[in-house]
Amino acid sequence: MSWQKELSNKGYRVSEPRRLVMGLLAESAQPMTPLEIYQELSQSGQNLGMASVYRALELLAELGLVCVVYNPDGSSGYVAGSVGHHHHILCKKCHRTITFAGSEDLSDLIRRVEAETKFRVSDHLLQLYGICPDCQKILADILEEN
């Protein structure tokens, strides 16, 4: 189902700010901060205020249409969401982010953590970091030259 249909099915309009923010995130391979979204839209001639960017992101994240991704330095950005349970892997060099399907394989780990900590786990966030194939090739070429 498209993000527009999902938004409409939940009783929300496909407003211009939501359309612009989702369009930009859908085209980006890297997480974008609200400021980067604002600046990119401004540079492309879109007249959208920071408050509108934040409001659009807040609703889209609440509905699972965008996801927060954490950079290795601790900063965060947004990426377009995908259907179903999923996680992200982020390249530590170029920050390209790939979504991959989640699974129930974490259930054993969650049960163990609950037993050890006496917490009741209600949610989780799994994000992996690595080096993408393009950056691996660049690094290999650099090493080969030296």
Distance between the termini: 49 Å
* Oligomeric grouping of the chains: single chain
Q: Specify the number of helices.
A: 6
Any idea what the radius of gyration is?
A: 18 Å
Q: Please give the CATH class.
A: Mainly Alpha
Mean pLDDT, to the nearest integer, reads 90
Q: State the shape.
A: flat
The residue ranges in which pLDDT falls below 50 over 5 or more consecutive positions are none
CATH superfamily: Winged helix-like DNA-binding domain superfamily/Winged helix DNA-binding domain
**Helix fraction?**
40-55%
- Strand content is 15-25%
The side-by-side strand order for the widest beta sheet comes to 4-3-5
In brief:
By secondary structure, this protein is an alpha+beta fold. The chain has helices at residues 3-9, 16-27, 34-43, 50-62, 107-117, 133-145, and strands at residues 66-70, 76-80, 86-91, 97-101, 127-130. It has a single domain (3-145), classed as Winged helix-like DNA-binding domain superfamily/Winged helix DNA-binding domain (Arc Repressor Mutant, subunit A), CATH 1.10.10.
Offer a few descriptive terms.
single chain, Arc Repressor Mutant, subunit A, three-stranded mixed beta sheet, two-stranded antiparallel ribbon, 146 residues, 45% helix, alpha+beta, flat
Structure, described:
The protein has 146 residues and is of the alpha+beta class. It has one domain: Winged helix-like DNA-binding domain superfamily/Winged helix DNA-binding domain (Arc Repressor Mutant, subunit A, Orthogonal Bundle). The chain is 45% helix and 17% strand. The chain is built from six helices and five strands. The protein has helices spanning 3-9, 16-27, 34-43, 50-62, 107-117, 133-145; strands at residues 66-70, 76-80, 86-91, 97-101, 127-130. The strands form two sheets. A three-stranded mixed β-sheet has the order 4-3-5, with no helix packed on it. Strand 3 and strand 4 (97-101) form a beta hairpin. Helix 2 crosses helix 4 (50-62) and helix 3 crosses helix 4 (50-62). The longest helix is centred in the middle third of the chain and has 13 residues, at 50-62. It is flat. The termini are far apart. The mean pLDDT is 90.
